[in-house]
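Deliverable D2.4 — example input (structure tokens):
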């Protein structure tokens, strides 16, 4: 709350978001268009992860060299890491409470079958939640691994479609996406607050103030660039999880389940708004990216949904790829 009232914080945040919107709206789509299809999904994830880590490491090195390794800066990094780790530990309990999650023996049978088809020996706890149609994976080493599906989604999908959705969520667990995205998601936050702290330090430093201010502002801007890259990596992880859903149930059940969820939210804007406002929306299987076409797509006409155009700005600001692109990606899978 106090940070929001700080004019320096507000100016830096506005400048960062302007850069972020510029990248997402104009630069990122052009770059993505040039490299699309040149690398496999696995290679793309590896290259993007290396890019995120190398940029972040360079920025942090420059900050620590010019600002010095002071107790204030190291304390800030430690504080951000501890807060995020505590949230990681507490989030399963918060999710269970918020969504009234309850174990479902019927859903457990579906989860066990999907895990068996993937050759997964670990047990995943099936939880039924009361919410608009959605599914998500959560948990940690203390609570175990949960696969949650809403009661409304269970009633909407066929058994094969439900297996595909559950396979997608088990895929997130298999790929350790919660931990991976927690670690990568920390980087832009750490860089932003270190840059912000440097700008404040510059105001009190008559000797090196100008230099510190320049580096601090550059770090803040860079943090939003890293955030765009982290979002792109998150979208790749969704494609990666979709491959597991296809392995469990096949292409058509995975595609039709996504299409049904997509159509539901366009026909129920109030439900869309409720989930869009959720603090845990990054967990959900559904992509909150509008497709520019008739929202009343027949569930039988998946081909029409594949041809929908997508807003570049919305796509590059999202943690999930748009449904039309996910459907086309599933078509490209060899199995």
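Example output (designed residues):
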């Amino acid at each position: 709350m106090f940070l929001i009232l700080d004019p320096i914080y507000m100016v830096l945040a506005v400048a960062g978001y302007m850069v972020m919107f510029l990248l997402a709206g104009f630069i990122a789509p052009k770059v993505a268009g040039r490299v699309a299809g040149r690398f496999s999904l696995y290679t793309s994830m590896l290259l993007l992860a290396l890019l995120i880590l190398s940029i972040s490491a360079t920025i942090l090195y420059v900050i620590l060299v010019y600002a010095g390794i002071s107790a204030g800066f190291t304390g800030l990094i430690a504080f951000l890491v501890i807060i995020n780790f505590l949230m990681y530990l507490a989030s399963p309990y918060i999710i269970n409470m918020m969504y009234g999650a309850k174990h479902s023996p019927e859903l457990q049978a579906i989860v066990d079958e999907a895990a068996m088809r993937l050759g997964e020996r670990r047990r995943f706890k099936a939880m039924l939640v009361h919410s608009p149609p959605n599914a998500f994976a959560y948990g940690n080493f203390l609570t175990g691994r949960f696969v949650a599906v809403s009661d409304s989604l269970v009633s909407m999908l066929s058994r094969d479609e439900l297996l595909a959705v559950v396979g997608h969520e088990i895929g997130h667990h298999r790929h350790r996406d919660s931990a991976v995205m927690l670690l990568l998601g920390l980087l832009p936050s750490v860089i932003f607050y270190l840059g912000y702290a440097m700008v404040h330090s510059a105001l009190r430093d008559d000797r090196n103030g100008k230099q510190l201010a320049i580096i601090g502002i550059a770090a803040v801007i860079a943090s939003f660039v890293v955030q765009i890259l982290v979002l792109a990596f998150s979208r790749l992880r969704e494609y990666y999880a979709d491959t597991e859903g296809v392995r469990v149930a096949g292409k058509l059940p995975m595609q039709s389940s996504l299409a049904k969820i997509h159509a539901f939210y366009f026909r129920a804007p109030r439900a869309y708004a409720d989930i869009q406002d959720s603090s845990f929306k990054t967990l959900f299987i559904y992509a909150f990216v509008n497709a520019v076409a008739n929202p009343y797509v027949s569930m039988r006409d998946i081909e029409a949904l594949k041809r929908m155009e997508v807003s570049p700005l919305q796509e590059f600001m999202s943690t999930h790829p748009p449904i039309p692109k996910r459907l086309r990606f599933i078509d490209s899978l060899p199995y």
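The longest helix spans residues 209-249.
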